Amino acid sequence: MELYQTIFSRRDVRHFKSDPLPSEVVKRILLAAHHAGSVGFMQPWNFILITDRNIRQEIKSVFSGLNETAAQNYAGARKELYQSMKLEGILESPLNICITCDRTRNGPHVLGRNSMPDTDIYSTCCAIQNLWLAARSEGVGVGWVSIIDQAKLKNLLNIPSHVLPIAYLCVGYPLEFKEKPMLEELNWEKRIDLTNLVYTNYWGTAPDWNLKT
Asked: Do 143 and 13 touch, CB atoms closer than 8 A?
């Protein structure tokens, strides 16, 4: 797919086909993730491929408990809408991937990280985005499960104490790619107009050129 088309058609996918992903497709997606930019060429990421259904069932149980708690943040119709939404595809997708950040990689003095130590996390997010876009170009869907307990996830996956799980992803061929993001489609949120987000030189100073598309 053409780059801009890939970006604009990327979706957070929750509904998957049961078809397995070819190993060559998975390799290409992971290679794209591994070629993300990273501060100091730190490359702090690792990728845990999770196919074991028992492990995924345990992770689904963690999600379900936290999701019930999260529902209490809303009331009335908003709560009903929240509870009606499918927010994961942990068991349905043929592959789950946990992307982690090793905060000690390349030692304590990584070039460019001295004044901004969290750039290792930001770099890992670049790898996640690369993976997501590469997957979309392959016709593969990705869903990020953010309703998760990091400590329990680390325990279930035997992740070392100095390594931080950043993203738990459900990956597989989708039933469909929606025209709009699910939350926009359901009127939960809407995309903010770019003209409200861009300033020139100082915060709050609008640019003197038209950002309308």
From this structure: yes
**Which burial class, exposed, middle or buried, applies to 8 when counting CB atoms under 10 A from its CB (0-12, 13-18, 19+)?**
exposed
8 A C-beta contact, residue 63 and residue 145: yes
H or E, element range at 65: helix 53-71
190 confidence band (pLDDT: 50, 70, 90): very high
CA 41 to chain centre: 21
* Residue 201, pLDDT score: 94
Cα separation of 149 and 59, whole Å? 9
Q: How far apart are CA 61 and CA 16, in angstroms?
A: 19
Per-residue pLDDT for 210 more than 90? Answer: no
Q: How far apart are CA 142 and CA 83, in angstroms?
A: 21
Question: Does the pLDDT at position 179 exceed 90?
Answer: yes
Please state the pTM of the whole predicted model: 0.95
Tell me which residue of 97, 96, 110, 95 sits closest to 44, measured CA to CA.
Answer: 110
Q: How far apart are CA 15 and CA 1, in angstroms?
A: 22
